Each structure stands twice: as structure tokens, then as C-alpha cells.
């Protein structure tokens, strides 16, 4: 299969293993509109590629993914959710992306070598097995910019660490490192940064070489439960996120981010 049309992803297939790499290192692998679209399409392409039995998700540069473009939000009128080139940041994009990941029956291993924030954390945590650097920082800080975690964080964090731990991290927006993430069950493995690529690839290759239909059937079975949770929670969290785009607290948060100061929230 030809993957040359992808702009934000680099895809290499070898020995039944597809390595899908975030390829916007100069932007911290932040997820713009084009990147979002590609993160929907790639999982369908992976399913259709007969040469692929397993997938390794990785990233170039210092960061795994810094999430969305907060600075760009500061330049929009209040409540405006348009992205670059005036494209609407339709909330359904996240639903399509996460459903595509869950529908992909081929196992996905994620190598989190650096900071993994916001939507980047959601993508990573929706994979099947995560290998994180002990020092990589992981967070969903939507609240820091006055928003609800509407793009999947409110779904996956409680499933991995329980509702109360998830609520604390999501309501405070605090970061935790890979060691702590492993301790509480947010990621599968935490190792020194230079060991992340090797361990993640070893696990992914083991799955690529394993009993294909047994592995896919196991993932499919567990993901039935995950899909139910996604359908139960995502509509509410997305709707709440859209509401918070229209608040003064959100506008103040993104202004403060752009001006490199502490925000002064007013509660509306």
C-alpha cells in the first residue's frame, strides 16, 4: 500500500509490522486539522493492508505530542472553533478517530518517548499497549485553558486508573511522569528514555509474529467494552467542551498562555 500522501505521519512497513510515526517535530507534533484527518484515515488503511499484522506508534523529535494549538486559540473570536485555513474543528473528528482506533483489530503498541499532552495523551492511551519513558510527562490539561476534556480524556483516564484518580488529574490538569503513570496503571511499562524504542518494537514485533486471529479476536472482545464506554461518555464530554469554548474563563486562559502569565478566572 502507498502511504506517500500522508503529510503528518511517516509510515514504514517491514516484517509484518507497520511503524506509524508522528512527523511534525518542529511543532512538537501538535495535532492540527490535517493531522486529525490523517489520524482517522490511517487506522482504516492499516486494517486494509494485508502486509501488516501489528502497528507501532511512535513520534519524531523531543516530544511525543504536545496536544492542540493553544496559541492559535488566543487569536480566535470568543466561541470560534475554527482551525487553520478556516476549517471548522468539528467535535465529531475525535469520535471518528477514536472509533477508528478501536475498530482496528490489529494490535497497536505506543512508544511514548517524550511529553504526551492533551489529545496526544488520548491517542496514546487508546492504543493497546503503552511503553513510556520514566521521565516523560503525561497530562490532559484541558482545564488549564478553561475547557472540558471533551476529546476522549474523560473516557480513557477513568477506565485505566479509576474514576476518582481520573477526576483529580482531569480537574486539576496536573502532569505525572512515566514512573507514576505505570504505578497507577495509566501506562503498561515505564523504562529509561533510551530503552523505550527497543522495548516497544520488541513487543510490537512479537504481536506481529504471533497467532494473528487469536490476537485480533482478543482485542476485538475487550474493545467491545471500550466502545460502549466511548458511546456513553463522549457525547456528554464533547458537548460540555463546546459550551466551555464560549466562556470568559477559556478566553482568559488562552490570553494568559499567549502572554505567559497566570490566568485570573472569573467563573463564567
UniProtKB/TrEMBL annotation:
Q: Which domain of life is it from?
A: Bacteria
What CDD domains does the annotation carry? crotonase-like (cd06558)
Identify the Pfam families for this entry. Answer: ECH_1 (PF00378)
Q: Which family does it belong to?
A: Belongs to the enoyl-CoA hydratase/isomerase family.
The protein depicted here goes by the name Enoyl-CoA hydratase/isomerase family protein
The organism is Marinibaculum pumilum
Amino acid at each position: 500500500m502507498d502511504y506517500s500522501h500522508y503529510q503528518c505521519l511517516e509510515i514504514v512497513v517491514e516484517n509484518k509490522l507497520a511503524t506509524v510515526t508522528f512527523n511534525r517535530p518542529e511543532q512538537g507534533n501538535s495535532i492540527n486539522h490535517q493531522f486529525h484527518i490523517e489520524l482517522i484515515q490511517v487506522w482504516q488503511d492499516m486494517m486494509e493492508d494485508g502486509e501488516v499484522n501489528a502497528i507501532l506508534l511512535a513520534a519524531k523529535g523531543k516530544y511525543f505530542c504536545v496536544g492542540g494549538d493553544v496559541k492559535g486559540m488566543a487569536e480566535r473570536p470568543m466561541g470560534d472553533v475554527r482551525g487553520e485555513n478556516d476549517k471548522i474543528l468539528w467535535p465529531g473528528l475525535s469520535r471518528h478517530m477514536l472509533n477508528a482506533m478501536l475498530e482496528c483489530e490489529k494490535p497497536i503498541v505506543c512508544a511514548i518517548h517524550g511529553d504526551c499532552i492533551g489529545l496526544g495523551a488520548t491517542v496514546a492511551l487508546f492504543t493497546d499497549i503503552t511503553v513510556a519513558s520514566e521521565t516523560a510527562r503525561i497530562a490532559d490539561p484541558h482545564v488549564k485553558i478553561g475547557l472540558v476534556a471533551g476529546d476522549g480524556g474523560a473516557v480513557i483516564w477513568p477506565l485505566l486508573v479509576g474514576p476518582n484518580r481520573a477526576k483529580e488529574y482531569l480537574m486539576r490538569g496536573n502532569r505525572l511522569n512515566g514512573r507514576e503513570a505505570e504505578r497507577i496503571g495509566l501506562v503498561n511499562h515505564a523504562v529509561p528514555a533510551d530503552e523505550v524504542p527497543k522495548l516497544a518494537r520488541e513487543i510490537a514485533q512479537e504481536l506481529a509474529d504471533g497467532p494473528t486471529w487469536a490476537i485480533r479476536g482478543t482485542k476485538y472482545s475487550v474493545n467491545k467494552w471500550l466502545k460502549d464506554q466511548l458511546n456513553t461518555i463522549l457525547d456528554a464530554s464533547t458537548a460540555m467542551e463546546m459550551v466551555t469554548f464560549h466562556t470568559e474563563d477559556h478566553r482568559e486562559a488562552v490570553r494568559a498562555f499567549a502572554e505567559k502569565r497566570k490566568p485570573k478566572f472569573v467563573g463564567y
